[in-house]
Design brief:
The protein is an alpha+beta fold. The protein has 13 helices and 16 strands. Helix 6 crosses helix 9 and helix 8 packs across helix 10.
Length: 434
């Protein structure tokens, strides 16, 4: 039975909404009930914009987010007169690992989402705030400015809409960190940089030129939509909409700033992980999911099947985008965090790509530091995508790229061990058969 069919069936059989909520709460553990109370009390901090009405046909019955983020792989809810078991994709050990790292560094605000790019299965959702310890939904909040993560959208639009490639060279005469309207035209002598290098170094000036001279506001808005901005993401937990505000008649300077990551654009950590997933998944952004299976004692009501939600760009341009992401890690803005990767037992065998971003925000207040990334084992084909935002008002204790480094080591360390065990079992099986 598909997810939508399951939801329709539940709706037909259900009692009143008020009664259903009472039944659900009655079946949840005491810890989860306390967590729900804390979650509800924290909803107003920080305040979020009201998001557009969502198509809830693909949403789950309201799972309590804390019952998920505590790392439980299975929850049981008494529903329609019987126990309904929800098997979740959350990996308790990975969830605990991320939670402990955030707690250790006592960051002001942080949200982390970890997922499988090929399936959309969410393996960890972590939130932490030293400023507001009761806040438990930062991994799904979209009040954070997207900053230079939006350069992924700009680069994709350029590759799709023009003959340009990762090797194409652009010129900007001003300070690369800022956008100045008088330097957006090529008749000024300035610094030349390929698209790949500009992406890896997060060169705002070059991206300002790209946005204003090769693209426009409508194209950027179109490709932002293809990456899921201004749309409700179909997910079994309430996730805020990542927003983009742009006027088709925007000035040249405002388009340049938007393309470089200075526009009115917000992003959630889960959405950030989805963007990274699309890069390693040849343009396909999978529908995120946290429920693997729903069953009763007698039957399976629902089993997850991977679904493509968006095709953000063509597979023909995936290679260029992957090269840009990898250059960011090897010689760009994330090189410090991964500088010793080639000497580390786990990371040295992985293909790792990412994009950094940083910008001051007001909700929550502080400097937002982003890293959306992926890691792939070329031998097994296994991949992982991570979206991280960390916000601090004054002092920095850990950067998102370094946290990603540790997450990849933790995940693939266990994956490699499991692969070795599986391989040994196969060999052992052949010996017995012979």
């Amino acid at each position: 039975m598909g997810w939508k069919d399951y939801q329709k069936n539940v709706t037909r059989k259900s009692v009143s909404k008020k009664r259903l909520r009472q039944i659900m709460l009655a079946g949840i553990s005491f810890l989860a009930v306390l967590s729900i109370i804390q979650w509800l009390s924290a909803l107003e901090l920080p305040r979020q914009k009201k998001q557009p009405d969502a198509d809830i046909s693909s949403q789950s019955i309201e799972l309590p987010i804390e019952a998920v983020t505590v790392g439980a792989p299975r929850i049981k809810i008494f529903q329609n007169g019987q126990d309904v078991i929800y098997d979740l994709s959350i990996q308790p050990s990975l969830q605990k690992f991320v939670d402990q790292k955030l707690e250790k560094y006592n960051v002001d605000w942080a949200g982390v989402a970890v997922m499988e790019p090929s399936s959309g299965r969410v393996l960890a959702l972590s939130s932490y705030s030293a400023k507001n310890p009761e806040h438990s939904q930062l991994s799904l909040a979209a009040s954070f400015p997207a900053a230079s993560i939006f350069k992924v959208v700009t680069a994709s639009a350029l590759l799709e809409e023009t003959p340009q490639s990762g090797d194409s060279v652009f010129t900007y005469a001003g300070d690369m960190r800022r956008i100045n309207s008088k330097y957006l035209h090529s008749h000024y002598r300035g610094t030349q940089m390929s698209l790949t290098k500009a992406f890896a170094m997060s060169a705002n000036g070059i991206f300002g030129v790209i946005g204003s001279q090769y693209l426009n506001a409508d194209l950027l808005k179109q490709y932002a939509k293809q990456f899921g901005f201004n749309e409700s993401i179909p997910f079994e937990l309430p996730i805020e909409v990542s927003t983009l505000e742009v006027d088709s008649e925007s000035s040249e300077l405002s388009v340049a700033k938007l393309a470089a990551g200075f526009g009115q654009v917000t992003l959630s950590p889960l959405h950030g992980a989805m963007i990274a997933s699309s890069i390693v998944n040849n343009g396909n952004m999978m529908k995120p999911t946290i429920i693997d299976q729903i069953s009763t004692q007698d039957e399976t009501l629902y089993r997850m099947e991977p679904v493509v939600w968006k095709t953000s760009f063509s597979s023909a341009n995936a290679k260029d985008l992957q090269v840009m992401m990898k250059k960011t890690v090897t010689s760009g803005t994330a090189r410090k965090a991964f500088g010793r990767a080639k000497y580390q037992n786990v990371l040295k065998n992985l293909e790792i790509g990412g994009k950094t971003g940083s910008l001051f925000g007001t909700n929550p207040k502080g400097r937002n530091e982003w890293f959306v990334s992926y890691a792939k084992d070329p031998d097994s084909g296994q991949a992982l995508a991570v979206g991280i935002v960390i916000v601090n008002e004054k002092y920095w204790k850990i950067k998102p790229a370094q946290l990603s480094n540790w997450i990849y080591q933790e995940y693939f360390k266990h994956q490699n061990a499991e692969n070795v065990v599986a391989s040994q079992r196969q060999v052992h099986g052949r010996k017995i058969d012979s």
